Amino acid sequence: MLAEDAFAGIKKMLPPPTRRAIVLADPSYEDKQDYRKVIETVKDAMRRFPTGCYAIWYPLVQRREALDLARQLHKAASGKEWIHAALNTQHPARDGIGLHGSGMVIINPPWQLFDQLKSALPWLVNVMGQDDRAGFKLEKSVA
Description:
Layout: H1 6-13, E1 22-25, H2 33-48, E2 53-60, H3 64-76, E3 82-88, E4 101-107, H4 113-128, E5 135-140
């Protein structure tokens, strides 16, 4: 286990000796700058390791940076396959505070992941949904 800033530490890890790996990004996003750092880190990581699979989690919150993150990751993955999956469990809070779901952007996704998510996400909405605003979004890059 490493005790360091992951945004800086990932540079030492890529490319891996095996040339096959998945990079999971799960920042806290407590600092608004984390959104920008995620984009910069993913761009740098893809230059170092273009064939890697990158799974980037983000919170569904009422913050401009969160709403824009997936679009920026799609743009950063230009020319690569990507999947974007988001799960809303409830209506956003009236005061604008709190998490109402989660999203992931997966760059260079595993084969068949899109089809698996297509069947899993409706089930998750049914199991985890808390009100009539529960739902999901699933999209992928166009070849």
